[in-house]
Design goal:
The structure is a single chain. The protein is built from 8 helices and no strands. The chain has 148 residues and is an all-alpha fold. The chain folds into 3 domains: 41 residues; 39 residues; 42 residues, no CATH class.
Length: 148
C-alpha cells in the first residue's frame, strides 16, 4: 500500500519526465501499470487512495448470535457448531467467538517434568490405587500429571 506522499512524488516525477510511464516507473521501482492508474485517477479527479473497505458479513447478527450461543451451550466445539448450522467456516466462527465476552483464552501450561526416584514412584502408585479422593489430588501431591 502506497502513501499519498509517495503517490504525489511519483506523479510529480512523471510530469518531470514528460509523461514517460516506463522511465518514471523504473526510476521509482514501481509497476508502470500502477503509475498509469494513478495518473488516470488524477485526470478524472478521483481520490488517489480509496478508503478502506468496510466488508459486511454475509450472516446477520441474529444468525451469528445463534451460532455462538450454540457453541457455548454445547461444549465449545467449533466443528460441531459449523456442522449443525451449515455455516460459517471454522475460521470465521473462531473470529466470532473471540469477540464474545464469554470466550476465555485457553493456555497450555507447560512445566518442567518432575523426576521421581523408584521409591517415590512406588509410593505414588500405592497412593493412587488406595486413594479415597481423586487422582488429581494424588498427582498434585507428587507434583506430576495424572499419568504417573
Amino acid at each position: 500500500m502506497h502513501k499519498i506522499e509517495e503517490i504525489e512524488k511519483a506523479l510529480n516525477l512523471l510530469d518531470t519526465y514528460d509523461g514517460q510511464l516506463s522511465k518514471t516507473a523504473r526510476a521509482l521501482g514501481i509497476n508502470h501499470y500502477t503509475l498509469r492508474s494513478w495518473r488516470d485517477k488524477r485526470k478524472k479527479g478521483e481520490p488517489l487512495i480509496s478508503r478502506t473497505r468496510n466488508k459486511s458479513s454475509k450472516w446477520s447478527k441474529e444468525e451469528q448470535e445463534s451460532v455462538i450461543e450454540y457453541y457455548f451451550s454445547h461444549g465449545e466445539n467449533i466443528t460441531k457448531a459449523c456442522r449443525k448450522f451449515g455455516y460459517p467456516s471454522a475460521s470465521s466462527l473462531k473470529l466470532w467467538v473471540k469477540k464474545d465476552k464469554r470466550w476465555i483464552k485457553k493456555h497450555k501450561v507447560h512445566k518442567k517434568p518432575t523426576i521421581l526416584n523408584d521409591e517415590d514412584k512406588k509410593k505414588a502408585i500405592v497412593n493412587l490405587v488406595l486413594r479415597d479422593s481423586s487422582a488429581i489430588t494424588v498427582a498434585n501431591k507428587y507434583n506430576v500429571t495424572r499419568g504417573i
